[in-house]
Amino acid sequence: xxxxxxxxxxxxxxxxxxxxxxxxxxxxxxxxxxxxxxxxxxxxxxxxxxxxxxxxxxxxxxxxxxxxxxxxxxxxxxxxxxxxxxxxxxxxxxxxxxxxxxxxxxxxxxxxxxxxxxxxxxxxxxxxxxxxxxxxxxxxxxxxxxxxxxxxxxxxxxxxxxxxxxxxxxxxxxxxxxxxxxxxxxxxxxxxxxxxxxxxxxxxxxxxxxxxxxxxxxxxxxxxxxxxxxxxxxxxxxxxx
Length: 241
Prior knowledge:
- The protein folds into two domains: 11-157, no CATH class; 162-233, no CATH class.
- By secondary structure, it is mostly helical.
- It contains ten helices and no strands.
- It has helices at residues 4-14, 17-44, 52-84, 89-115, 121-157, 170-178, 185-188, 194-209, 215-222, 224-233.
């Protein structure tokens, strides 16, 4: 049986106004945009299913949906951290699951609006297909978001501003500072193929600064989407020589 106390603690922790408000606005925007875009497609492209304009519009819809999904995850993370001061990796996973389930429910509502909530085979097939693609999208966006957050944390651990990790070009300059490499190395990052070698060298130096060697260095290079979150959200501290 479900423990009522644990259930209420979970609800209060993840769905309080201070934690879930901005994410809920993103999800509401996702719902409204989904209904509006479906209505637009239905009325503008009824007799032209394979036109370039329909394909271009579909691409725009996908980009906006991805942006709303990313924003929901990002705000959830930032507000949760602000309220509880810290955040563990398992809590980030919980946030990802909550967002995904919420989006599945929103997809159900969007499709239901046009199908009159009649659970026909067509409704079930379309809903299943949408949920599958949404799952793939959620994995991609969540992976990107978790790595951005991880790099943010790594920069903060090194005594730098977290936002510097998401600013193109400037993040390289700050990373060279963190790894105590010469500033002129930045010029080498502008040279094709040479920048790959420089990235490996800097990654190796970063790993050592956190007391990580050998296997972990290869992990950062070959599986960055796994090892950077470990470095960012783990207990490893910056300052090793």
